[in-house]
Amino acid sequence: MTNSLKETIEAVRKSFLTALDSFPSDTHEIEVLKSSYFGRKGELAKLYAQMGSISHEDRPNAGKAINALKEECSRLFEEQEKKYITPDSTQTDQLDYTLPGEAQRLGSKHPISKTLQEVKDIFTSVGFHIAYGPEVDDDYHNFTALNFPEHHPARDMQDTFFVQKDVVLRTHTSNVQIHLMENSEPPLRYIVPGRVYRNEAISFKSYCLFHQVEALVVDKNISFGDLKGTLEYFVKRVFGSSVTMRFRPSFFPFTEPSAEVDIWDEKRGQWLEILGCGMVDPAVFENVGYDPKVWHGYAFGLGIERIAMLKYGISDIRLFFQNDKRFLDQF
Ligand code: DAH
Predict the structure, then answer these.
(1) Alpha carbon nearest to ligand 1 atom 10, residue
(2) Would the pTM of this model clear 0.85, i.e. be above it?
């Protein structure tokens, strides 16, 4: 190996050791120093570049010497770097504990999910089972089996989304009453939460999609008194025992007699309907093959949005479906 190369190697070594003596404390400066020796245009790369002009017999030794220098420098550099990156205890003491923390924002449950959960908890605590049914169903389960006459206005294109002729997006969860009775023998005690769809003009009080919880109880000796007692218990658990409620006679093709339940809305000074209910019509029992002389039942269908609006004082149903963070953050 030529003397001049030996000298150059030694000179690089010395200048590197001097640089280490005043090792920088700033990450950017550390990077600059690193690349001035180890980078593509750094001192070590320059040494390797000289290999081309060295005679064949000298080349192996020259290579070895430069490699040894590189290894030594890398090791020393890493040692210094580690000292800087792993702070010692004196550095830890300099942490400023008075700096404000970074708040972690948690998501919140949607008011519809919260209301649904509460309704499910109340009914399961008094012996109801939970069932689910199809959102796309045939006309038979959504209407015919529920005793809707052929000309009933609810079958009109205005209210119902048709998927095909005789296939609809269910307009209520009552379709699951039929599925449950077709698939099981009485006695039954079910609630059925789910989404329902209506082809209605959208406004502050109606939307094309909303949620219902259906209930169906079938047994021997079931009376309207059982239905009333269950609903009064439910309403008091949701709204508190000082709630003002009323049963108002109504009509549904699949119940006889039928009623609706209204809750007095203090905020607006008016009644708000939250559910329809009644005793299962004998014609419905006949459609599913239950003997109406032996079996009696009641059913009801709760509107979850209506309950959530009353509970949380929300005045526009569309807010539930816009997913505006400013609205959702309040729950
Ligand atoms: N399905 C009715 C609706 O969507 C609500 C309803 C009324 C459900 C009476 C029932 C019932 O189970 O007995 O308007």
Answers:
(1) 300
(2) no
At which of 39, 57, 91 does a domain end? 91
Q: Using a 6 Å cutoff on CB, does residue 174 contact ligand 1? A: yes
Q: What domain range is 49 assigned to? A: 3-91
In tens digits, what is the pLDDT along the chain, a chain of 331 residues?
677 888 999 999 999 999 988 888 888 889 899 999 999 999 999 999 888 888 888 888 889 999 999 999 999 999 888 877 665 555 556 788 888 988 888 888 999 999 999 999 999 999 999 999 999 999 999 999 999 988 887 677 668 999 999 999 999 999 999 999 999 999 999 999 999 999 989 999 899 999 999 999 999 999 999 999 999 999 999 999 999 999 999 999 999 999 999 999 888 899 999 999 999 999 999 999 999 999 999 999 999 999 999 999 999 999 999 999 999 999 8
Q: Please tell me whether residues 249 and 164 are part of one structural domain.
A: yes
**From ligand 1's centre to the CA of 79, what distance in Å?**
77
Q: Whose CA is nearest to atom 7 of ligand 1?
A: 276
Residue whose C-alpha is closest to residue 191's, from 207, 206, 173, 178: 173
Q: For 56-109, give the DSSP string.
A: TTTHHHHHHHHHHHHHHHHHHHHHHHHHHHS--HHHHTT--TTSPP-PPPPP--
Residue 99 inside a domain? The answer is: no
Ligand 1 site-directed mutation target among 143, 198, 252, 280, most atoms within 8 Å of CB: 252
Quick one: 86 and 229 in the same domain?
Answer: no
300 lines ligand 1 (CB under 6 A): yes
**CATH code, domain with 290:** 3.30.930.10
At 173, which amino acid appears?
A: T
Q: Are 152 and 207 members of one domain?
A: yes
Q: How far is the CA of 276 from the centre of ligand 1 (A)?
A: 5
Question: Which of 42, 63, 91 lies at the terminal end of a domain, its last residue?
Answer: 91
Instruction: Please work out whether the CB of residue 197 comes within 6 Å of at least one atom of ligand 1.
Output: no
Q: Does residue 299's CB lie within 6 angstroms of at least one atom of ligand 1? A: yes
Residue of 180, 300, 304, 306 best suited for mutating to test ligand 1, as the one with most atoms within 8 Å of CB: 300
Beta strands in the chain (DSSP E): 129-130, 136-138, 162-164, 167-169, 188-197, 209-219, 245-252, 255-265, 270-280, 296-303
